[in-house]
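Quick start: what a row looks like.
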Amino acid sequence: MHKKKIHKYTRSVEQGKVERLRCKVVEFDDVTIHVIPFLPDNLAYLIVDKLTMTGVLVDPADPHEVTVSKEGTLVCMCIAVVAFGMAVA
């Protein structure tokens, strides 16, 4: 289901029908949270520890296809929230 929605959204962006959604960054003393839109109604969160530069990716639309390219950040875990439970990859 998500793959079809992601493909449709990506195609719409490429055709200029919709504007690409932008990431937002929220800074705290010890962590940075990157709010990453996958779809208009689906957000993921990359939470990065500023001291160790390690992070966790929470609730991506398609966790098996995620490639994290945040320079200097080692992503240790990907958590996919699914209906009535969680899957940790």
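That is the whole record. The beta strands are 24-27, 31-39, 42-49, 54-58, 74-82, 85-88. The CA atoms of residues 27 and 33 lie 6 Å apart.
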